[in-house]
């Protein structure tokens, strides 16, 4: 049920935040007072993974779901901010802007598209300066200092990068399993868990099981839970993977810190993404690694979700000045 629908009449301004990642596309509908009206969700919001036509379908489904949750008929919003994976180039941002406008999410000229990290920073640090790390299906790092300068490290995709992410950990689980199987690595409970999870009768069936068809990356990412579970159970290889992932994420944060000027004061670092926020043991590892590598770093709990961050940026884009307290009210729902 919605927080408030009374002000969402046919003429009242509304803003929409869209968070598109490797796992899901989420839409949050808010009014000019910063009140949550409705939220919808669909499948992957990664343009590279699913392509423009499927992404358009996912955005439309999540958008309709948000309006349905508000108990209202869908109409184009007055301001839309899309914080999306795989939009690092102008061409990709334009492609997403076109498809979002085409399916009716926002009025022409009112749709902004940027990398998912921009929404993550807005939500994670409540619109303040600092550094945000995303550790979800993929990974990346982004920062902004007091002068407004920004820098990104990581985020090169699962083929080249995505260190410390669910895809990286899931791939690591499979590597550890095959090395244990053929005698090149230490024994690990990941060997049996990988075979069981993928329904393999023989380890040689692993490659065809994960190397074809759609959603290859999401299938690898789903194996990350094996690493976190087996690490908790005491498996040394699983623990090693988590420690290496945490160090690699901290390295990204250190690179961003080195390229920006945060002065002499402490710099806040927020960890977001499903993996980083939902696995406490891994979150703590990343926090320790970051604070060990960056002088003055202070790891903080994300103040709001990436989706709320996108909605905050959409709220800023509404014509005129937002109502007093709108931003604080919106951040309070994170």
Task: Please name the defining characteristics of this protein.
18% strand, 5-stranded mixed sheet
Could you explain how this protein is built, in words?
The protein has 334 residues and is of the alpha/beta class. Helix content is 45%, strand content 18%. It has 13 helices and ten strands. The strands form two sheets. A five-stranded mixed β-sheet has the order 3-2-1-4-5, sandwiched between helices. The protein has a five-stranded mixed β-sheet with strand order 8-7-6-9-10, sandwiched between helices. α1 packs parallel to α2 (90-102), α3 packs across α12 and α4 (166-181) packs across α5 (190-198). The longest helix is centred in the N-terminal third of the chain and has 24 residues, at 47-70. The chain is globular. Residues 1-8 have low confidence and may be disordered.
């Amino acid at each position: 049920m919605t927080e408030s629908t009374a002000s969402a009449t046919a003429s009242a301004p509304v803003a929409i935040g869209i968070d598109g990642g490797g796992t899901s596309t989420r839409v949050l509908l808010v009014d000019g007072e910063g009140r949550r009206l409705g939220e919808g969700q669909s499948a992957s919001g990664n343009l590279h993974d699913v392509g423009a036509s499927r992404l358009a379908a996912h955005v439309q489904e999540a958008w309709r779901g948000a309006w349905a949750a508000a108990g209202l008929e869908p109409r184009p919003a007055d301001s839309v901010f899309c914080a999306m994976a795989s939009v690092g180039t102008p061409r990709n941002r334009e492609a997403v802007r076109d498809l979002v406008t085409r399916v009716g999410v926002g009025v022409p000229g009112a749709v902004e598209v940027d990398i998912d990290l921009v929404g993550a920073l807005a939500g994670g640090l409540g619109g303040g300066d600092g550094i945000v790390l995303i550790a979800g299906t993929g990974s990346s790092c982004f920062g902004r200092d007091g002068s407004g300068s920004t820098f990104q490290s990581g985020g090169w995709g699962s083929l080249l990068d995505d260190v410390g992410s669910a895809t990286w950990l899931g791939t690591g689980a499979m590597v550890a399993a095959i090395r244990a199987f053929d005698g090149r690595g230490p024994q690990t409970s990941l060997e049996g868990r990988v075979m069981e999870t993928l329904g393999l009768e023989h380890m040689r069936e692993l490659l065809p099981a994960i190397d074809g068809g759609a959603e290859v990356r999401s299938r690898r990412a789903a194996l990350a839970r094996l690493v976190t579970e087996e690490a908790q159970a005491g498996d040394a290889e699983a623990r090693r993977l988590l420690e290496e992932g945490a160090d690699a994420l901290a390295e990204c944060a250190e690179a961003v810190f080195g390229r920006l000027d945060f002065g002499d004061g402490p710099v806040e670092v927020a960890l977001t993404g499903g993996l980083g926020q939902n696995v406490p043991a891994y979150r703590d590892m990343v926090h320790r690694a970051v604070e060990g590598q960056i002088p003055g770093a202070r790891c903080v709990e994300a103040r709001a979700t990436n989706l709320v961050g996108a909605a905050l940026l959409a709220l800023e884009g509404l014509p005129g000045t937002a109502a007093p307290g709108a931003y604080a009210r919106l951040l309070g729902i994170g």
